[in-house]
Design the sequence.
């Protein structure tokens, strides 16, 4: 054997021994471990389209996404206790959650509001043993929990006594307070708190509890309430006949028909017709809950994170309602949040007034000359404009009604049908018959139909537009179109004026829906850019695709473009379109927020 062969064998043997040594002693470098996915389930105690749930879900979800990015796997489920008995809903949801999350290892569960917290107290360890729970609810939500459970959270105080004290400060001549509540378990719980907190105040003012009869009975009562009376609305999720109701809708009717001021303890209701109250602010409580959840996800021990009392309860009033009822703002307690304050006419419109005076002075002769002709033209345009406004307004009301019917009736019935098919499928699966296969197919079809009905409901009427504003609503519609049509939609939304008029927000939202729909149908583009911004008080939105384009001169008066132009004209805006074959299409909508007087006239 030659010397080179001996050397090679010695080298190979030495290398083998070195590798084995490193393996045994653990010095071999390991591949970097993948970052852990954080699987979070948020369980809500009521339906998903309630204002408080929309706001809280958006805050919790966005806060966690901002910190965790792609490591977050977020799920949300809802207990519809307003329309179904709580025990029936809990049993159904228990079976549903067991099947859906059987193969997922949850990191943390967020329980929002008392029905969801009670559900986790009863079924939490059975469904998700050992998973930590973060609760969001009222101060008595954990009263029945046994010690030692893996739980923390933020609890807000229901301060109805503070609301009555606020009433007596603003309206010291109040002789009677009508306290309205319903017959559901949630209504009864809130009424019991009211009786306990307000017992000592009956020496200062008469308290009358209205907790029976129908909604029509309540409306007739508040419409005839005498002077010196005030209404405190708690909640009405069920009337005395057992009919399930939406408390927000009942409150809207009460504030519309009442001839005296109405107060309430919910922060989301300030701005919907109530004067205000010492309110439970879901925005603050949602942020506190999200931050506490992040601390749990970072590994802090639950015993180091005791349940904390939220700072979300504050006096809050609607400035417009103070003016409506002639209430003195100086009587408000220190620290009161005053919303929707309007600036004085001179401060808001100073430059408009000065420029108008100058124009009137310089053009007086021309105005006299053209007055008769201009008056005729303005009259005809005002018939046309009011007619268009009524048609658009009627169409939006019908969209909202159909969306509500789809979600409240058909969506709930399809969900129950899907659960029934799942149960029947499990019972028939043992013998492996053709019936089992057919039931599986029917179940999949019903689930797909349920999702389509849900998406159609949101396309017809977006709750996020009213509650969270134009940017959040555009984000939602872009995500829906992107998922449904496998389209890359990039949304860039800049800063907008703090309070956009409702008709302008709705106009831009509908224009975006129509433009994205046209891009899906006609452009054959795989990418769309949506940009939203404000330049010198002018709100603009630009939607551009990179598809086939079209000959604009031939299709300038299409139905879709005409509808967009008419919507923008109603808010004093305009539409510009750039397109030619082979280079894509770009639409630019522009409008300047109207003054309150002009906006209400246009609607």
Sequence:
């Amino acid at each position: 054997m030659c010397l080179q062969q001996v050397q090679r064998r010695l080298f190979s043997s030495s290398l083998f021994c070195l590798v084995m040594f490193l393996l045994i002693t653990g010095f071999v470098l390991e591949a970097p471990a993948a970052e852990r996915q954080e699987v979070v389930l948020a369980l809500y105690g009521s339906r998903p389209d309630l204002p408080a749930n929309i706001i809280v879900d958006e805050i919790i979800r966005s806060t966690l996404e901002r910190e965790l990015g792609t490591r977050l796997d977020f799920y949300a489920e809802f207990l519809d206790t307003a329309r179904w008995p709580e025990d029936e809903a809990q049993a159904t949801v228990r079976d549903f959650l067991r099947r859906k999350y059987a193969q997922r290892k949850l990191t943390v569960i967020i329980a929002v509001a008392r029905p969801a917290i009670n559900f986790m107290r009863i079924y939490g360890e059975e469904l998700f043993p050992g998973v930590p729970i973060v609760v969001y609810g009222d101060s008595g939500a954990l009263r029945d929990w046994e010690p030692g459970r893996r739980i923390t959270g933020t609890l807000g105080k229901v301060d109805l006594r503070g609301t009555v004290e606020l009433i007596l400060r603003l309206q010291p001549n109040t002789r009677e307070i009508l306290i309205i509540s319903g017959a559901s378990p949630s209504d009864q719980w809130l009424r019991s708190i009211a009786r306990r907190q307000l017992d000592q105040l009956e020496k200062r003012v008469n308290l009358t509890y209205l907790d029976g009869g129908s909604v029509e009975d309540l409306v007739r009562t508040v419409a005839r309430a005498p002077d010196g009376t005030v209404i405190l609305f708690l909640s009405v999720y069920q009337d005395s006949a057992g009919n399930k109701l939406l408390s927000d809708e009942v409150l809207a009717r009460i504030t519309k028909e009442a001839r005296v001021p109405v107060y309430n303890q919910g922060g989301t209701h300030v701005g919907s017709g109530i004067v205000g109250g010492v309110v439970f602010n879901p925005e603050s409580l949602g942020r506190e809950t999200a931050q506490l959840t992040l601390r749990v996800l970072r590994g802090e021990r639950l015993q180091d994170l005791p349940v904390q009392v939220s700072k979300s309860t504050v006096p809050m009033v609607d400035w417009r309602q103070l003016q409506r009822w002639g209430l003195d703002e100086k009587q408000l307690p220190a620290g009161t949040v005053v919303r929707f304050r309007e600036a004085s006419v001179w401060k808001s419109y100073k430059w408009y007034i000065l420029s108008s005076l100058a124009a009137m002075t310089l053009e007086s002769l021309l105005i006299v000359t053209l007055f008769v002709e201009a008056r005729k033209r303005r009259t005809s345009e005002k018939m046309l404009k009011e007619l268009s406004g009524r048609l658009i307004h009627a169409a939006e009301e019908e969209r909202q009604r159909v969306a509500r019917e789809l979600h409240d009736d058909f969506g709930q019935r399809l969900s129950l049908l899907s659960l029934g098919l799942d149960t029947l499928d499990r019972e028939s699966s043992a013998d492996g018959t053709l019936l089992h296969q057919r039931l599986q197919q029917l179940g999949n079809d019903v689930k797909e139909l349920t999702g389509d009905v849900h998406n159609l409901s949101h396309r017809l009427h977006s709750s996020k537009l009213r509650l969270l504003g134009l940017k959040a609503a555009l984000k939602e519609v872009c995500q829906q179109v992107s998922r449904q049509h496998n389209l890359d939609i990039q949304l860039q939304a800049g800063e907008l004026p703090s309070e956009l008029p409702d008709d302008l927000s709705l106009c831009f939202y509908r224009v975006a829906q129509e433009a994205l729909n046209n891009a899906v149908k006609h452009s054959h583009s795989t990418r769309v850019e949506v940009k939203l911004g404000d330049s010198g008080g002018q709100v603009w939105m630009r939607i551009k695709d990179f598809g086939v384009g079209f000959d604009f001169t031939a299709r300038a008066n299409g139905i879709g473009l005409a509808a967009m132009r008419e919507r923008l004209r109603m808010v004093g805006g305009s539409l510009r379109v750039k397109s030619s074959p082979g280079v894509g299409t770009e639409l630019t909508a522009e409008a300047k927020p109207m003054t309150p007087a002009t906006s209400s006239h246009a609607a």
